[in-house]
């Protein structure tokens, strides 16, 4: 009999308990934990504001100023203040949610599912064939496709709202359905078809944003669990620092693409600007 088995992995989050008809999953509990961590950090960072910041206040101000500089460099000062709340919120929430994966007990402490054979349990620890029968109470929030899809929908819909606000309904709709182009003959018909492809692109943005974040963080969580089983010492030395880097990169990519989509939405879609806009988006994707 082997000492223990590899953990059981599944894409869908596991239900822990119910609040009436509402199921509470382990990813939802981790989402709440991430929000609490963020609130506590910013509470202590802003509790005693000093003219010369230090400690946690200094770190918080540096992080927010760096994000603001990034937003201004891409969107300009006119739109930076409008875009910043969403971009900064997404970055901080995703980064903290990703980092939760390295906390002790995440993916490893939970409820025993099914019968345990005699001699395969010692206190809270399981061994042998029963070792992978634990349903974890906490699982990183960003390994739930429901959450990443919801954030992607918020990003794309917010971009559409800004597009209508900045360009007006007529010009913004013509970015996707350019009916006047049909009056320009065959070339205009091709232009009309090209604008229809923009609608497809909006849906592809939802898929790419959600699946990229979900896939990378879920894969990282699996790698940590597998190597914690195979080589526990190696996890602490190599894979946990690597996972921290992945947590930052994925949060940065998601928030950067959000910023780019917002900027594209408020920019006029003339032929001269079209190539420049998509080159900016391509550079952002290349950072991944």
Mind explaining what this structure looks like?
The protein has 288 residues and is mostly helical. It has one domain (15-286). It is 66% helix and 7% strand. It has a two-stranded antiparallel ribbon. A hairpin with a 2-residue loop joins strand 4 and strand 5 (125-126). Helix 1 runs antiparallel to helix 2 (55-99). It is found in: Cell membrane; Membrane. The chain crosses the membrane at residues 20-44, 83-100, 147-167, 213-239, 245-264. Key component of the proton channel; it plays a direct role in the translocation of protons across the membrane.
Which segments are poorly predicted (pLDDT under 50) over 5 or more consecutive residues? 271-280
Q: What would you call the structural class?
A: mainly alpha
Q: Quick one: how many beta strands?
A: 6
Number of H/I helices: 7
Q: How far do the termini sit from each other?
A: 43 Å
> Considering DSSP H and I runs of 4 or more, what fraction of the residues is helical?
55-70%
As a percent range, the share of strand residues is 5-15%
Please state how the strands of the largest beta sheet are arranged side by side: 1-2
Q: What value does the Rg take, in angstroms?
A: 23 Å
Largest sheet: 2 strands, antiparallel
What is the H/E order?
Answer: EEHHEEEEHHHHH
Average residue pLDDT: 81
> Domains counted in the coordinates: how many?
1
Dominant shape: globular
Brief summary:
With 288 residues, the protein is mainly α. It has 7 helices and 6 strands, in the order ββααββββααααα. The strands form 3 sheets. A two-stranded antiparallel ribbon has the order 1-2. Strands 3-6 form a two-stranded antiparallel sheet.
